[in-house]
Amino acid sequence: MIIPVDIHTHRRPQVPGTAIVNCFPESFVPQTEGWYSVGIHPWYIASFAASLNDSKARFEELLDHPQVLAVGEAGLDKLAEAPLTLQIEVFEYQARLAEEADKPLIIHLVKAVDELLKLKQKIRPVKPWIIHGFRGKAALAEEYLRHGFYLSFGEKYQEEALRIMPSERLFIETDESTASVDTLYERAAILRKTPLEELRRTISKNVSEIFFRQ
Questions:
Q1: Each residue of 47-63: pLDDT tens digit?
Q2: For a tag site, which of 29, 62, 89, 175 has the least CB within 10 Å?
Q3: Which of 101, 104, 156, 96 is nearest to 131 (CA)?
Q4: Which domain holds residue 105?
Q5: What 3-state DSSP class applies to 13?
Q6: Domain containing residue 17: CATH number
Q7: Residue 181 near residue 153 (C-beta atoms within 8 A)
């Protein structure tokens, strides 16, 4: 079994299984040996809500698929067109499904820190919540860490935030970047003053524990 080194991407990797590919419920067509997350992004909530009953049934069915490792990306985005009240409703729906499915939640977040923290306090999840593509300052990273979040770093981020991350809460992703995941690992290892292979082993252990532990 291949353990993915890239926990969030929108492109199929050249080698199936080396990345967790994010899909919408309607676009999920798994490759042999591939790994996936499936979720309702806040930018596209309107199309999901338009056929709510059919959409929910399809989505919930997919979460039982053995190649779906996570729910998401779910999110809150104050720059999206969908009303924030609807975003919160759909986010909570996905977060509770993640608990039922016993899978981590991958989160897209833009300008909605307070709302996210309130939802975490309300839901009190057992499964990990991972904020993907984290670009905030070190102080915000520390705030999230205090609330039990994991953070995933892509191509763009505040270097000090990456440096202060506890190794057991850290992930690497390509998201929509054209940079290779190997390049991102090399850069992160240099910034953290950690041998590259040690960083790879650490994140591989994190992925195994969070996405593959039953």
A1: 776 665 667 888 889 99
A2: 29
A3: 104
A4: 6-211
A5: coil
A6: 3.20.20.140
A7: no
Do the domain assignments include residue 33? yes
Across 31-35, average pLDDT: 93
Q: How many other CB atoms are found less than 10 A from the CB of residue 94? A: 22
> What is the total count of domains within the chain?
1
SS3 assignment, position 5: coil
The verdict on whether residue 108 carries a ligand-binding annotation is: yes
1 domain residue, yes or no: no
Band the pLDDT of 137: cuts 50, 70, 90. Answer: very high
Which DSSP symbol is given to 108?
E
Q: Is 102 annotated as a binding residue?
A: no
pLDDT number for residue 152? 98
54 inside domain: yes
Query: Which residue has 């935030």 as its token pair?
Result: 161
Residue 132 assigned ligand-binding role = yes
Side chain identity at residue 174, one-letter code: T
> Which of the residue ranges 17-26, 57-66, 138-147 has the most confident prediction, judged by mean pLDDT?
138-147
